[in-house]
């Protein structure tokens, strides 16, 4: 199988999860946790509770978190590793990279200087907004904010052409909202009404902190809600946006300018900092049509108020304590159920990773990467790819014509592991040890400029979307690649010292999950080169959609949260891609494990067969506790199902799981009409 593998420096060293830092806070994370298992529960009744029940009892959500799971434990672990790096380099930098990230971190930790600065960091933006006299100047300010990395009104970015993925083009799209989703502005249930009331109060307080009188701030807050409601009503919902065809609107720039003349796009593009171009994609033309009318009818002063709010809101985490606290009270405590803000150091590590992530990532890789485990992981990737080839071959509902195209796409997938082979150059980013808000803004402006310079150039397929310390992985349809940052390649996902069953149940399922994304309800609409093209026969496409609908309906029956505000179920269509990938990844990793084991007898370990350890390792990756507020928010915005349903939803469709644990027909973990796409 011709698969290009970029195994850049091997996997994380086997000792990473031991005490490698001077902080004393890094604890070993087990790859397989017997103490997490609740043996009072029948695994065939509630496997998630069986695999995670004791873990959930003994791992309460920390006061500074809204969700706490094994994923979060690993990310916290990485934060401690990064903190050690940053504290060392801020004191004694040995290279320009070390000095830059060290100074950035130091500026964030310098609360005294930040407090003394007060609202000084936002005054240039606020002054420019105050001087706006007409709509033309309004759009000039939007352009200036975008150049500074401050999103407002709409989105402008670069992305591969949907029909020629080898070329990157300009995109404009809906945007400009401050609440997590358009539905927060539109839904009329009691919780949504309450949230809008709390939001208006929050906006008012922030305007007051910026120096406005209570009466003026109260009116401004109402104006902000009204303006953002206009943007929300014009926005496409998340489920609609999952279908690429709803975002596919290639136009000449002259057409886009005619579509929304009040946006003054000719002027905007000229001032954006992007290279000259004459073709772009408009993600949601209806957004621009509807907002175009409001730009012409709403008073300019209302739009100025909106831009002032966006400035305050986006800068708030980098301003004085009063802004930080108020920002947390609404976004952290009210919306997410977080009881305390994260400690300053953790917020500063996160900010450094967000702003200079590839520079910090380079130091992270230098500290944590080693050659151990490289060949073992290479075999795992190849084994799971071979399992997918085998799985496609066995499908009785897919024609040979479509299978040949599926093989071609599978054989073309690029696997990027660890970190990019070319590091990002942050040399032009000015970092001042005494200017945290300015550092954050300049880094954002750098990133905005960097991405816009890709317009009308060959697509850079080696550019990464995630930093190396990130605990995550992703598939990109236009690139047809799967990417595994170094941060996830450690326990509980992977450990050199663990048996194959546990590693395949952990990182193996993640590998299979990302592979399956290339063939989920979105990914299947892109070909081997990353172009948005239908390579399915009509009948095979219909067969796929029937199976996808089964999965969507299954997950739509699961309850995400039930509290005094009512019951919220999952949106099976919003989460369809991730649920398809969870089910597919579980099947592929299990097939690969069985292929490796063959007919060789394998002894039980800790009283569990390899098959049982595989499923337990998968289940335990998703052990988590979550606040009701966070669960409610994620049900609206997150394309991933909660941990409980990622596990139970997948295993109840798995005959292999049912065989491993001896489950019988009629038990909850045995779905009568199992859903299976891949």
Could you walk me through the main structural features you see in this protein, from its secondary elements to its overall organization?
The protein has 678 residues and is an alpha/beta fold. The protein has three domains: 43-65 and 375-410 and 492-678, Collagenase (Catalytic Domain); 67-118 and 345-372 and 424-448, no CATH class; 122-185 and 224-299, Orthogonal Bundle (Neutral endopeptidase, domain 2). 53% of the residues lie in helices and 9% in strands. The protein has 26 helices and 13 strands. It has helices at 47-58, 70-91, 96-109, 111-117, 123-130, 135-147, 183-186, 190-209, 214-234, 238-241, 253-259, 265-271, 285-297, 300-315, 321-336, 344-368, 374-394, 400-412, 436-452, 500-517, 538-556, 576-597, 610-621, 628-637, 643-651, 655-661; strands at residues 5-7, 67-69, 154-161, 164-174, 250-252, 279-282, 414-418, 457-458, 474-476, 481-485, 559-563, 566-569, 624-626. Strands 3, 4, 5, 6 and 8 form a five-stranded mixed beta sheet that branches. It has a four-stranded mixed beta sheet with strand order 1-7-10-9, with helices on one face. Strand 9 (474-476) and strand 10 (481-485) form a beta hairpin. The longest helix has 25 residues, at 344-368. The chain starts with a strand and ends in a 17-residue tail after the last helix. Residues 1-23 have low confidence and may be disordered.
């Amino acid at each position: 199988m011709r698969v290009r593998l970029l195994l850049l420096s091997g996997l994380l060293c086997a000792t990473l999860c031991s005490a490698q830092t001077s902080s004393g806070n890094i604890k070993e994370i087990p790859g397989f946790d017997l103490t997490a298992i609740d043996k009072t529960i029948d695994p065939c009744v509630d496997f998630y509770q069986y695999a995670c029940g004791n873990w959930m009892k003994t791992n309460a959500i920390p006061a500074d978190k809204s969700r706490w799971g094994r994923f979060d434990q690993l990310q916290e672990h990485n934060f401690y590793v990064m903190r050690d790096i940053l504290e060392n380099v801020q004191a004694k930098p040995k290279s320009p990279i070390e000095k830059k990230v060290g100074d950035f971190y130091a500026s964030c930790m310098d609360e005294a200087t930040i407090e003394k600065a007060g609202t000084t960091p936002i005054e240039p933006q606020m002054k420019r907004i105050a001087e706006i006299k007409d709509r033309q100047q309004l759009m000039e300010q939007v352009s200036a904010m975008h150049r500074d990395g401050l999103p407002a009104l709409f989105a402008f970015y670069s992305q591969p052409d949907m029909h020629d993925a080898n070329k990157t083009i300009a995109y404009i799209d809906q945007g400009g909202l401050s609440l997590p989703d358009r539905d927060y502005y539109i839904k009329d249930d009691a919780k949504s009404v309450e949230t809008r009331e709390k939001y208006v109060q929050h906006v008012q307080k922030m305007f007051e902190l910026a120096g406005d009188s209570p009466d003026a701030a109260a009116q401004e807050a109402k104006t902000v809600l009204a303006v953002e409601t206009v943007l929300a009503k014009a926005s496409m919902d998340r489920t609609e946006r999952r279908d690429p065809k709803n975002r596919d609107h290639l136009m000449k720039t002259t057409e886009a300018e005619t579509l929304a003349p009040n946006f003054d796009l000719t002027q905007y593009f000229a001032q954006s900092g992007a290279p000259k171009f004459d073709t772009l994609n408009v993600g949601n033309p209806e957004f621009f049509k509807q907002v175009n009318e409001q730009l012409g009818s709403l008073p300019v002063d209302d739009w100025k108020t909106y831009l002032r709010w966006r400035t305050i809101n986006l800068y708030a985490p980098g301003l004085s304590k009063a802004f930080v606290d108020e920002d947390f009270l609404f976004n952290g405590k009210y919306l997410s159920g977080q009881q305390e803000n994260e400690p300053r150091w953790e917020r500063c590590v996160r900010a450094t990773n967000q702003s200079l992530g590839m520079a910090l990532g380079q130091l992270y890789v230098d500290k944590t990467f080693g050659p151990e485990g490289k060949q073992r992981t290479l075999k795992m990737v190849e084994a799971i790819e071979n399992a997918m080839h085998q799985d496609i071959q066995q499908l009785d509902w897919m024609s040979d014509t479509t299978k040949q195209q599926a093989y071609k796409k599978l054989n073309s997938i690029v696997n990027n592991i660890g970190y990019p082979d070319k590091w990002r150059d942050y040399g032009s980013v000015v970092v001042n040890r005494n200017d945290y808000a300015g550092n954050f803004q300049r880094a954002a402006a750098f990133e905005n400029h960097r991405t816009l310079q890709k317009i009308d150039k060959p697509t850079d397929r080696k550019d990464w979307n995630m930093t190396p310390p990130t605990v995550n992985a992703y598939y990109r349809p236009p690139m047809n690649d799967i990417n595994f940052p170094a941060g996830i390649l450690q326990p509980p996902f992977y450990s050199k010292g663990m048996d194959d069953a546990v590693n395949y149940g952990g990182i193996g399922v993640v590998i299979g999950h990302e592979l399956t994304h290339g063939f989920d309800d979105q990914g299947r609409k892109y070909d081997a080169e990353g172009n948005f093209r239908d390579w399915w026969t009509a009948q095979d496409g219909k067969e796929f959609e029937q199976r996808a609908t089964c999965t969507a309906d299954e997950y739509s029956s699961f309850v995400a949260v039930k509290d005094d505000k009512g019951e919220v179920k999952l949106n099976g269509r919003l989460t369809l891609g991730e649920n398809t990938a969870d089910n597919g990844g579980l099947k592929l990793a299990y097939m690969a494990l069985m292929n490796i084991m063959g007919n060789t007898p394998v002894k039980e370990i800790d009283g569990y067969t390899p098959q049982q350890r595989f499923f337990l390792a998968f289940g335990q990756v998703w052990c988590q506790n979550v606040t009701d507020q966070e669960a409610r928010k994620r049900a609206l915005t997150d394309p991933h199902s909660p941990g409980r349903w990622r596990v139970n939803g997948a295993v109840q469709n798995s005959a292999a799981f049912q065989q491993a644990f001896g489950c019988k027909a009629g038990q909850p973990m045995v779905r009568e009409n199992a859903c299976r796409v891949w």
